[in-house]
């Protein structure tokens, strides 16, 4: 059962015998944690009293358009916009006709015309009125305008006739409301995205290290974009001064070796993006004690190559992520080096960028990238790192979903 907790419905009660069912509708909505504000048409007051609806909703009921106090306290525009959804129940033939033609001659129809929220109608009327071509024309117009409809049901009517025209039951209306208010399913919901970011730090001794200028900004922006698309997002990051993006699972690391171990521990993943500027080398034998200035020559640092994290993950047999993306930070011959890295590292896509001093990419907020893959080169204009991140995640979502579709 979808929770309606914290939601607000503006219920517009039309003038029909089915108006009595709005008591139960309000009660059900309230038990689901939904606030209900009520507008009644003048005709509705012939069937139910404002007092009964006010006591059930726990709020004042709005009845007339030109009530000065209502206009001051809560104008009709605010009334319709403060709600998450407008529900018209019962939606009489007359109310549907007004809505279809944009009439606004009372509070109910004015609120409906002034709203920028989704509207659900629960029609209720005599079977002949429902079948009348004018009503069916209005219904088609309302559907075209994006208005959602629940019911009417078949059955015996208050007037003794039989057929469609009975208002949907309150529980059915609540289900329709819950369906309209549930958050949209995000495209990467249920998918796991692994991202490396920032520099790595390779210790020389307990107080010194080798590292690089990477700020981590692009990788963190990608993590935010992955969260926004609903992915379970793992951010394996070297030391940066950036705040942890909300919604990510942060795995802080220092060295390339730790970064590799952490990434491998997070597999399987659907998409892996290697945006970290991994130090290519580490000190072969770092000292556990601070190296003191000796009397003789400065110490010679002997380096050994770090594992290539991207290549290791991209060439794994059993649990290679479906999409593996590398970055190529170059200071010249950008496309050529990127194409070379694409094949050498076995990834599906390289995001190549120029990080020469004059580009301002390292530490800056902008990036100009080229996407290099087996299907060609796509060059994007200079954009903010946030925009690059969102566009990249959208691109990767399409790649992932279409490759999963093709595999089916
Ligand atoms: N990368 C990695 N592990 C490494 C080195 C690089 O995972 N030890 C990844 C980076 O995160 C990036 C891609 O490989 O996605 C390319 O990184 P880059 O530094 O441009 O390439 P290198 O392989 O280091 O080659 P070179 O420094 O010679 O350009």
Estimate what percentage of residues fall within beta strands: 15-25%
Indicate the mean pLDDT.
Answer: 92
Query: What value does the Rg take, in angstroms?
Result: 31 Å
Residue share in helices? 25-40%
CATH class of the largest domain: Alpha Beta
CATH superfamily of the largest domain: CoaB-like
CATH architecture of the largest domain: 3-Layer(aba) Sandwich
Low-confidence segments = none
Largest sheet: 8 strands, mixed
* CATH topology assignment of the largest domain: Rossmann fold
The hetero compounds bound to this protein are: cytidine-5'-triphosphate
Alpha-carbon distance between the two ends: 31 Å
């Amino acid at each position: 059962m979808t929770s309606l907790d914290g939601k607000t419905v503006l219920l517009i009660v039309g003038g029909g015998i089915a108006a009595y069912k709005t008591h139960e509708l309000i009660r059900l909505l309230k038990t689901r944690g939904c606030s209900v504000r009520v507008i009644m048409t003048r005709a509705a007051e012939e069937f139910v009293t404002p007092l009964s609806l006010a006591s059930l909703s726990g709020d004042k009921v709005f009845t007339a358009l030109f009530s000065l106090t209502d206009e001051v306290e809560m104008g009709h525009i605010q009334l319709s916009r403060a709600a998450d959804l407008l529900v018209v129940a019962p939606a009489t033939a007359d109310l549907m006709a007004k809505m279809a033609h944009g009439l606004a001659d009372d509070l109910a129809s004015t609120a409906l015309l002034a709203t920028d929220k989704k509207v659900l109608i629960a029609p209720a009327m005599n079977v002949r009125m429902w079948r009348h071509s004018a009503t069916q024309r209005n219904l088609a117009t309302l559907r075209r305008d994006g208005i959602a409809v629940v019911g009417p049901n078949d059955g015996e009517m208050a007037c003794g006739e039989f057929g469609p025209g009975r208002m949907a039951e309150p529980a059915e209306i609540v289900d329709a409301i819950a369906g309209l208010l549930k958050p949209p399913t995000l495209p990467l919901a249920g998918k796991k995205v692994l991202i490396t970011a920032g520099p790595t730090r390779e210790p020389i001794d307990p107080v010194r290290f080798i590292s690089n200028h990477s700020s981590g900004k692009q990788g963190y922006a990608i993590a935010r974009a992955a969260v926004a698309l609903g992915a379970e997002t793992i951010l394996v990051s070297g030391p940066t001064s950036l705040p942890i993006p909300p919604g990510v699972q942060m795995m802080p690391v220092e060295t390339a070796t730790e970064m590799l171990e952490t990434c491998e521990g997070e597999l399987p993943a659907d998409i892996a993006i290697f945006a970290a500027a991994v130090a290519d080398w580490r000190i072969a034998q770092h000292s556990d004690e601070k190296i003191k200035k000796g009397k003789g020559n400065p110490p010679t640092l002997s380096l050994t190559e770090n594992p290539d994290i991207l290549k290791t993950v991209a060439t794994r047999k059993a649990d290679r992520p479906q999409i593996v993306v590398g970055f190529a930070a170059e200071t010249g011959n950008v496309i050529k080096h990127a194409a070379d890295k694409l094949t050498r590292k076995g990834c599906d896509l390289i995001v190549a960028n120029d990080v020469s001093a004059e580009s301002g990419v390292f530490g800056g907020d902008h990036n100009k990238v080229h996407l290099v893959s087996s299907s060609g080169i796509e060059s994007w204009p200079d954009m903010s790192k946030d925009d690059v991140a969102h566009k990249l995640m959208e691109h990767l979502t399409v790649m992932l979903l279409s490759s999963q579709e093709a595999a089916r």
